[in-house]
């Protein structure tokens, strides 16, 4: 009962997405099955034992931290609602996650990969091509891509076609599209009706016969890896999120600034975007050497003294 009330509160008060609510539900179900006492009787020591059990089973640090975060949100809700007199998660801390750089593939390899389906004739391949082109052209999260409505392409004041995407917290943002991506989307729209089954799926750009009415993020991941195998790439080297990382990294390499990339990715905090400054340090160094006024003076002086 408490879990249902918590989920209803998250949906109503915090406008939590369906994916977030499902994650909360899974985490709390796992926790309650592990515990041998009611959720209202849980102590801090019980939480700590649960966390230790997760680490002993070699769960990833990110997974453990997500479950800690869920418990913190849950018990804060119970405390605020007066269901418990003290919050057992109040002083529980998350674990430090080792710093890892995002996976990317080179712009040349990405270009070759996208060209692989350029002359696709089968509707299924035409759809996959549109998905791949859109992921790389927009940097969308896969959860944002699958929920795109069929009328998501809009035209701005300068007639530049853009995608209107809804990100975390239902925040909307516009992302411009390149000509190749638009051509792939137009080709897909000609065969889209093949994938529509009923009223529910008719509203989505990437319609599907799934119960959601659209492609699932798991299915998109499968399609990306299946295409990678056909192309000759190791499936472990690419995923929908690799397209997002590559989009940001290649923009940075091309001279874009972090604030612009932050807006395009839909990051609420610039600190999240700053990870990309460490992906290709050589290209960032070269960018500074080419555009910084002092570096320009030094380079000019070196050329004169040659």
Question: Briefly, what is this?
Answer:
With 306 residues, the protein is mostly helical. The chain has helices spanning 2-13, 18-34, 44-56, 61-80, 107-115, 123-138, 142-146, 179-189, 199-202, 217-231, 240-253, 258-265, 270-273, 281-291, 293-304, and strands at residues 153-155, 161-166, 172-176.
What this model shows, in words?
The chain has 15 helices and 3 strands. It is mainly α. It has 2 domains: 79 residues, Orthogonal Bundle (DNA polymerase, domain 1); 166 residues, hpI Integrase, Chain A, CATH 1.10.443. The chain has a 3-stranded antiparallel beta sheet, with no helix packed on it. It starts with a helix and ends with a helix. The C terminus is likely disordered.
- CATH class descriptor name of the largest domain: Mainly Alpha
Q: What is the averaged pLDDT score?
A: 87
Instruction: Tell how many strands the DSSP assignment holds.
Output: 3
Q: What gyration radius follows from the Cα positions, in whole Å?
A: 23 Å
| CATH level 4 superfamily of the largest domain | Intergrase catalytic core
pLDDT < 50 runs, ≥5 residues: 301-306
Return the CATH topology of the largest domain. hpI Integrase, Chain A
Structural classification: mainly alpha
Number of domains: 2
The termini sit apart by 79 Å
Binned strand content: under 5%
Taking the sheet with the most strands, its summary is: 3 strands, antiparallel
The total of helices stands at: 15
Strand order of the largest sheet: 1-2-3
The appropriate CATH architecture of the largest domain is Orthogonal Bundle
- Write the H/E string, N to C: HHHHHHHEEEHHHHHHHH
Helix content: 55-70%
């Amino acid at each position: 009962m408490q879990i249902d009330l918590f989920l209803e509160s998250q949906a109503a008060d915090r406008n939590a997405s369906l994916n977030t609510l499902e994650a909360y539900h899974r985490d709390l179900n796992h926790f309650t099955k592990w515990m041998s006492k009611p959720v209202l009787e849980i102590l801090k020591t019980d939480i700590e034992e649960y966390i230790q059990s997760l680490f002993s089973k070699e769960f990833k640090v990110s997974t453990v931290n997500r479950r800690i975060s869920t418990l913190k949100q849950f018990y804060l809700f119970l405390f605020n609602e007066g269901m418990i007199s003290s919050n057992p998660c109040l002083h529980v801390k998350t674990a430090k996650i080792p710093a890892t750089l995002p996976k990317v593939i080179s712009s040349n390899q990405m270009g070759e990969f996208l060209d692989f389906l350029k002359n696709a004739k089968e509707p299924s391949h035409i759809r996959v091509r549109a998905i791949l082109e859109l992921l790389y052209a927009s940097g969308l999260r896969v959860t944002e891509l699958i929920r795109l409505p069929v009328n998501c392409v809009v035209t701005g004041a300068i007639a530049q076609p853009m995608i209107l995407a809804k990100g975390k917290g239902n925040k909307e943002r516009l992302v411009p599209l390149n000509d190749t991506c638009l051509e792939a989307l137009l080709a897909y729209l000609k065969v889209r009706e093949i994938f529509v089954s009923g009223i529910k799926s008719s509203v989505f750009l990437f319609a599907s016969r799934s119960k959601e009415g659209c492609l699932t993020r798991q299915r998109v991941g499968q399609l990306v890896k299946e295409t990678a195998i056909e192309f000759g790439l190791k499936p472990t080297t690419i995923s929908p999120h690799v397209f997002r990382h590559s989009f940001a990294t290649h923009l940075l390499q091309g001279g874009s600034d972090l604030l612009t990339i932050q807006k395009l990715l839909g990051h609420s905090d610039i600190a999240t975007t700053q990870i990309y400054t460490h992906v290709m340090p050589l290209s960032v160094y070269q960018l500074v050497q080419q555009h910084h006024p002092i570096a320009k003076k030094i380079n000019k002086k070196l050329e004169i003294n040659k």
